[in-house]
Amino acid sequence: MARFGGDKKVGQSILLIPENHFKKWAVPKLPLWLETYHLTMMTVLWSLINVLVVIPAKYNLNWLWLVNIMIIAQYVTDLFDGEVGRSRDTGLIKWGFYMDHFLDYIFMCTMVFVGYRISPAGLEMWYFGLLVVLGAFMVNSFLSLAATNEFQIYHYGIGPTEVRVVIILINIFIIYLGTGQFFWLVPLVVLCCAAGLVFNTWSIHKKLWAFDMQAKRHR
């Protein structure tokens, strides 16, 4: 049986090198009682806080600062959980892969929900499209893993960390300029994400087609 490849990410991103240095420096300093599964499950808390924030954020956009804090908190716990498991040989490789990425999806949904709740009326279909496209990116990664046993979440220097940075900057933009810009900003985000999805799908399609043709020649 081939070794499970889901715990090894393939590719590079712009922030990967400083991110790895930060991880290697910080993880040995974590208390021994804080285990990998604690860090993974903390995304439930960050997601719940996001859902609760939409109530006051609808009337005061400064609450988006708390959403930004949740993005940073989720980034830190997401960054540390795998490294803690590896350094302490916890052994929760497949559980960690499953629960980590399932909760990543839940957290992503709460982010879309925050945007939807603070938006002016008339953008509902764009938010539906955004949720579909972002979910499709995750489905693409998992289907590609099943076909190649390589887990690739970095594409052309862009990965989850870079996406988080962009979301934080968008939230700051909204705090200071309001939601009146949403009528062009939300469609632009959806269309850019959709273009990236098409390009990413085409790249995976070409890679898998080449694999199949090579295997066919050897049969």
Percent strand equals under 5%
H and E order: EHHHHHEHH
CATH class: Mainly Alpha
Spans of 5+ residues with little confidence (pLDDT < 50)? none
Spatial order of the strands in the main sheet? 1-2
Write the layout of secondary structure elements.
Layout (H helix, E strand, L loop, with lengths): L8 E2 L5 H11 L9 H22 L6 H24 L5 H26 L5 H25 L2 E2 L7 H18 L4 H37 L1
Parallel strand pairs: 1-2
Write structural notes for this entry.
The chain has 219 residues and is mostly helical. The protein is built from seven helices and two strands. It has a two-stranded parallel sheet with strand order 1-2. Helix 2 (36-57) packs antiparallel against helix 3. 19% of the residues are buried. The model has no long low-confidence stretch (mean pLDDT 91).
Outline of this structure?
With 219 residues, this protein is an all-alpha fold. It has seven helices and two strands; from the N terminus they run E-H-H-H-H-H-E-H-H.
Descriptive labels:
mainly alpha; 219 residues
